[in-house]
Amino acid sequence: MPAVAADTVENAIVGRRSVRDFSSRPVPMVLVERILLAARRAPSSTNMQPWKVDVVTKAARERLVAAILDTESRAPGMAQAEFAYYPQQWRSPYAERRRQVGLELYRRLGIKKEDQARARQQLLRNYEFFGAPVGLILSIDRDLEAASWLDIGMFMQNVMIMAAGGGPASCPQLAFAKHHAVIRHGLGIPADRIILCGMALGYEQIDSPLHAMVTERAELDVFVRFHHQ
Ligand SMILES: Cc1cc2nc3c(=O)[nH]c(=O)nc-3n(C[C@H](O)[C@H](O)[C@H](O)COP(=O)(O)O)c2cc1C
């Protein structure tokens, strides 16, 4: 692949990571708009462009964070997403991969397996967008089907790749789907939409123990079959 452009894209894709510790350095809104303008070029089935995004910053972000944390303190861990986003039964190889990320996260943060209080504290950091000054909430019209869910995944990846290309960092956050009621109320998202996912956008805290955490990937022969004849 000799093309320079391809190298640049490859670097952005390979260099993207989920960042879970952001500095308070603000992200200029022109940059957020630029990222979203590029991301909307994502392909979508019959060009439906099903993505809907609420951007929260400053006081709006603070209010949303406070409302979710308040709900979590009154009914810890009780909020449920409107859709099942994980399998009911974890099995190999997914269970191991999931465990590996969790273990590495906890190892870096010095959280012992039995320290449930700190583990919960870290979980709750999700709802502060891990300190990122910009939060995105992605939602989808309730009557749309699987194709549109795929499309939104592509849109989200575009946002993250744009961010990885020298701009701010990101973390996609399904955790927000659990708090659809609070989010819907706080942001005035209509009932005919499903709240799918959140995303943190900001600049990484470079001196964080989580800095440069790179997750593993399976080799090609694990997930690809080539058929030639
Ligand atoms: C749709 C989606 C939702 C995610 N939700 C969360 C989340 O709620 N909290 C979190 O810390 N990470 C979340 N992640 C990040 C994954 O854990 C991460 O992508 C995975 O471990 C691979 O690491 P990497 O993104 O750094 O390559 C999510 C990722 C995706 C794609």
Automatic annotation (TrEMBL):
Keywords: Flavoprotein, FMN, Oxidoreductase. Residues 13-203 form the Nitroreductase domain. The keyword Flavoprotein applies. Its cofactor is FMN. Gene3D superfamilies: NADH Oxidase. Belongs to the nitroreductase family. This is Nitroreductase. It comes from Ferrovibrio xuzhouensis.
